[in-house]
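Cross-posting from the modeling subforum.

Setting up a comparison between two proteins and wanted a second pair of eyes on the formatting. Protein 1 (sequence, then structure tokens):
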Amino acid sequence: MPIQKQDLRRIDDCVWEIPREHRSDMTVPVRVYADDRLLEDALGDRSFEQAVNVAALPGLVGQVVVMPDVHQGYGMPIGGVMASSVPDGIISPGAVGYDINCGVRLLAAHMPYRAIQDRIGELAAALYRNCPSGVGSEGRLRLSHDDFEALLKKGSRWALERGYAQRADLPHTEENGTIAGADPAHVGTRAFKRGRRQVGTLGAGNHFIEVDEVDAVYDEEAADVLGLFAGQVVVQIHCGSRGFGHQVCTDYVSYFQSVVRRYAIRLADRELVCAPLDSPEGRDYLAAMACAANYAFVNRQVLAHFVRQTFTKVLGKSVPDTELHQIYDIAHNMAKLEEHDIGGERRRVCVHRKGATRAFGPGAAGLADDLKPIGQPVLIPGSMGTASWVLLGTPGSMTESFGSTCHGAGRVMSRSRAKREVRGDKLRADLKKRGISVRAGSMPGLAEEAPQAYKDVDRVIDVVAKAGIARKVARLRPVAVIKG
């Protein structure tokens, strides 16, 4: 039965709850972050029904968390967080997502946008040429089987060894760009075949490279630590593990259909197939997922290398300093073994973040020394023509949402509807009038990502800031968008 507004109990201005008593099979409540408008948006699809189904999984602790950018997904809603107990909980591929370690990398130049404003069209065209994009796109790297296995095991350390990374990039990458426990032996042949030629490619869908101007700074001290200032040129790279990660998820969703029967796991939705964390099957998925996560870190790292080369080549003779330093790189489709305070007790849990971003607060273990005083940077891309945000994790995110916050604006219009209602060529012309240069391989693909297909990202950010699960550092304004 569809969830109605009266099924939710209001806790605060931006916090709601679907209590555990809502349905007899729920093992934990559902915590929702939204204002009234965003709540109404979420009630328009099956997001909350999916969240309740997640809350019926065995071995969960705390609560299922739903972010303000939530929308319906496969099994678990996009914008959802859950934590299962270690070692007696579960791992679910559908609660991680098909694009494993889809994430965002932010690079920043040491120059203001006005220094390159007249060259932005030329720069956008060069980025489109130099960064392969589109469905099925292939990259420039030709890797042997052994080299590809090394990439899957090492992640960003592989990229550093091969000259695609700067040493300073790794401490400013989640988990230093390497998820431990990756074992290619648990990855299928088809995933290998799909992934080897796609390293360093953007793909299609909502993935993009975007040149932005820092539109406003809200926390001068934190911005100074990160190397951000008002009017600055920055570059976002949003992509994930391409066909490799998709195939890993496909293989394990299929495999786990029989696993749930073997372990007598009852599901409210077959799309939430899972395995016990301490089972051989669960450990196999974690090892394969780590491979896909490391692949994605390398993918964004190689694209960052191409972006840096492009800036130097296009602007090198006319602009004194084209160097791009890395602000951060974060994932928003991942399952991670972490420690959190739950009910006054420190517990080891497997946190599934699907369309949600890790947002560790100040002093958290694993953060680089320069970031520990301020917390982990959180990168929130908006939609074309609107804005994106740099946030920081908070003590509140650590206590309330398993160190997590939102990941973007969140869709309110399906891709098929967007293609019916929006003409890609008209959208490109409208964006050009607003000073945004667009390079895209497909007009229907561009229409899918129209700004009107998404929620108001500023509204989403206001919710997480008011709720205390992130704090504002800077707002970014797009000036050039590159899409497949």
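Protein 2 (same layout):
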Amino acid sequence: MSDVAYRPSAAEVKELREQTQAGMMDCKRALEEAAGDMDAAKKWLREKGLAAAGKRAGRGTGAGVVESYVHATGTIGAMVEVGCETDFVARNDTFKAFARDVALQIAAGRSLQFVSEDEIPDAFRAAEIDTFRGKAANEGKPENMLDKIAEGMWNKSLVDTVLLKQPSIKPEHDGKTIETLRAELSGTIGENIEIKRFARFEVGEE
């Protein structure tokens, strides 16, 4: 990064905004910090956005899209509702691409039941942990370790049942979880992004 203050042109700011949907002032600041390097400016926006994403979590998401995916065989399909704050973002190609990726993820996840861990009913959690505890006991694990082992097995199982905890199945995402991708998009766009609900269908499945 140069020691000389960099002043981005209006065209550069506009280009970065079109590519990221971040605010004009954030784009200007990113280009200043990156001395005009567009890729570095995008990285700066992502990092800044991740830090701020949590602050946006409580903001309303009255706009958004419903995306679907149907496998080429026609036997598996999925639908997902992804919310955002404004119609402007709902029409954004990057936002819609994220929703499509999530629909694909859902279609691939036969064990998925919840969007987030917060949705899991206490009774479901207690029953699952009790099952894991019984399994550990049957395997001869020490009595004083059963609760800890069951809790560990429960946490591991969440990757299969909770959408946000799953690593993306797309290679270009380098194993990032759906929650990380959601937070990155929220940071880049500057709005709260929320996966609201989903449904998965498979021929012959009840």
